Structures are given as C-alpha cells and as structure tokens.
C-alpha cells in the first residue's frame, strides 16, 4: 500500500472534495483532502459525507482528511482546489511543506484580480519558479464525485509531464486529456464563466434561446481572440476547456455562474450571495486584460459593465446588436 502514488488535494469545497473522491475510488492513488477547518476535517473523517459541499455523496473509506499543512509533505501531486483569488495565499501558506519533486496543479477557473495573471503564473511566482500545471474543463463537482462520466484537460508546460498527469490522475469515470497549452486551457476556464453569466442574463431577461446560441458562438469567437493573443491555440478553445465548458455552464442550471446571470437578468437584486461566482470576478479582470492587449471582447465588457451597474440590459443588447457588421 505504501507504494501507491500520493496525491493531496487542498481545498475542501465542492471541487476539491469531488476530485479527492474520484481519485480515491480509482484505487491506485493514496489521496488526502486538506481543508483549513480542523472541525470540518475531523467530521468528514468520521461521517464521510460533506453536506456543505456535496450533499448525499458518500466519501470513500480510503480517502484521508487533514487540516495540517505538513500532510502534503510526501505527496507527488498537489492539487490547489480553492477559488482563484485564494490561490496565491494558499501557495504562500502550503509552499514550504511541498516535497522537492512535487508537481502542483491549479484547479481553479479564473485570473488573479490584482495582476490579471494566469493561475499557473501565480503559483510559479509564489512557489519560487516551481512549474505549475492547470486542470480545467466541463465537469460539475457533484457529477464527478458521483462517478458520472466526465472529461477535462490537464495542461503542463512540458508535454511529458502533461501525459504523466493525465495517466496518473485519470480514472474509469474521470478522463483527463493532456495539453501543453496552459494559456488556452486557463483562459477558456476563466472566460467561459463570464459567458455563462451572459447566458444567464439572456435567460433571466427572457431574450430567447436564439440569443443564447448567438452568444455562445460569438462568445467563443472572443475567447479565441484573447487566447491567440496570449499565445494559446484556437484548437484549445474548440476543446473541453473552451467550447465544452461553455456549453455546459451556459446551459445548465447546476452552474452558479449561470444562476447568477439569471438573477441579474431578472433584475432580482445584484445577485450577491454566499455562492462562489468566479465569473463575477473574471469579467472585469478579463475586460481589463482585453483592453491592455488590444483585443475586442464585447460580451465580456458588457457583462463587466452590467455587474458594475454601469450598463442596463436593454442598452447592452442594443450595444451588441448595433456593432459594425463584419464577417464571422
Ligand atoms: N464546483 C464545481 O463544480 C467546479 C469548480 N471548479 C473550480 O474550483 C474552484 C473552487 O470551487 P468550489 O470548490 O466549487 O468552491 P467552494 O466554494 O465549494 O469551495 C471553496 C473551498 O476553498 C477553500 N479555501 C478558500 N480559501 C482557501 C485557502 N486560502 N486555503 C485553503 N482552502 C481555501 C474554502 O474553505 P473554507 O470553507 O474554509 O472557506 C472552501 O472549502 C473554483 O475556481 C471553481 O471555478 C472547477 C470545476 C468544477
Ligand atoms: O466550472 C464548472 C463546471 O465545469 C462549475 O461551474 P460553476 O462555477 O458555474 O458552478
């Protein structure tokens, strides 16, 4: 048993708990989930249900739990599964406990607010240049944890490492595709959240399914423009972490970003709540990144302006529909 590869997932929310669960079930890995609340981690160890994050999903007996940072010391693979804006803090806190040869993977979908940096760049900055990989793509935590078939992309700078990560962390129900396009994979994950909010606004405001289809297509076009400007590949945008995740979260009410957009579209308050809505942060960050890079991001800009209260929905629709006519 001690020969099994050790994996640590940091962040005992929905996604971290789901990843730790599915990877434990594959049987070849020794997985520990680390959270920062000792009482919760002790409870999870005893009860094996995380009602707050994955209600009704049994957590496997072989999954370990800890609130101690030194529990990562022997892990070969360390997954950072906390929200985007917490990745830098977490790297600073857990970094000193990492084994020298450990591979770190960012599992969040967003960009750093203060710098607009990709999260792999954030981890590398905070972890003294240690190379970081990124996991992104379509998959709700509850589906992954329940063992429903899901597929995502795992991107590393080095192709061999990406292959190794995909082979080591994939399971019979959770399939990972290796990639070396870290920018494309992460920008896809960050921007699809903004576009899912836009799809929610369309639904909430009753603008129709035709409008949603147009938004998904044109949203994908602006995602491509930014990805290519940032050195990523158009084919990544057409893959799981771009089109795949946009279709999932732009159409499913399981998506927190979509639900937040619906609230905005219904003008039922500003949509603020306890749930994590990554796209609400990413909208203004991506809009600023687009301005800085000279990339036209009309949907992203409109979502950022609506969230900030600078633009009403009828004016946003008018603005998008009266742009100069161009080829697709
Ligand atoms: N949920 C999903 O279906 C999916 C989510 N993702 C992505 O995963 C990321 C996390 O989302 P999700 O799990 O859903 O969010 P949740 O809100 O369910 O959980 C976030 C967790 O992160 C923990 N956390 C926050 N800050 C830190 C920190 N500094 N150190 C350690 N842990 C911390 C929180 O701990 P505490 O409770 O103590 O505050 C909480 O347990 C997001 O970027 C999201 O886009 C990706 C794919 C699917
Ligand atoms: O990214 C996700 C599924 O791929 C989860 O989406 P939400 O954060 O919108 O719930």
Automatic annotation (TrEMBL):
It is found in: Cytoplasm. Pfam families: NAD_Gly3P_dh_C, NAD_Gly3P_dh_N. Residues 7-161 form the Glycerol-3-phosphate dehydrogenase NAD-dependent N-terminal domain. It is an enzyme of class 1 (oxidoreductase). Residues 181-314 form the Glycerol-3-phosphate dehydrogenase NAD-dependent C-terminal domain. Sn-glycerol 3-phosphate binds at residues 109, 137, 192, 245, 255-257. NCBIfam families: PRK00094.1-2 (NF000940), PRK00094.1-4 (NF000942). Its main location: cytoplasm. It catalyses: sn-glycerol 3-phosphate + NAD(+) = dihydroxyacetone phosphate + NADH + H(+); sn-glycerol 3-phosphate + NADP(+) = dihydroxyacetone phosphate + NADPH + H(+). HAMAP family: NAD_Glyc3P_dehydrog (MF_00394). Its EC number is 1.1.1.94. GO terms for molecular function: glycerol-3-phosphate dehydrogenase [NAD(P)+] activity. Keywords: Cytoplasm, Lipid biosynthesis, Lipid metabolism, NAD, NADP, Nucleotide-binding, Oxidoreductase, Phospholipid biosynthesis, Phospholipid metabolism. NADPH binds at residues 15, 36, 109, 141, 256, 276, 278. Catalyzes the reduction of the glycolytic intermediate dihydroxyacetone phosphate (DHAP) to sn-glycerol 3-phosphate (G3P), the key precursor for phospholipid synthesis. The keyword Nucleotide-binding applies. This is Glycerol-3-phosphate dehydrogenase [NAD(P)+]. Pathway: Membrane lipid metabolism; glycerophospholipid metabolism. The keyword Iron does not apply. The active site is at 192 (proton acceptor). The gene is gpsA. Belongs to the NAD-dependent glycerol-3-phosphate dehydrogenase family.
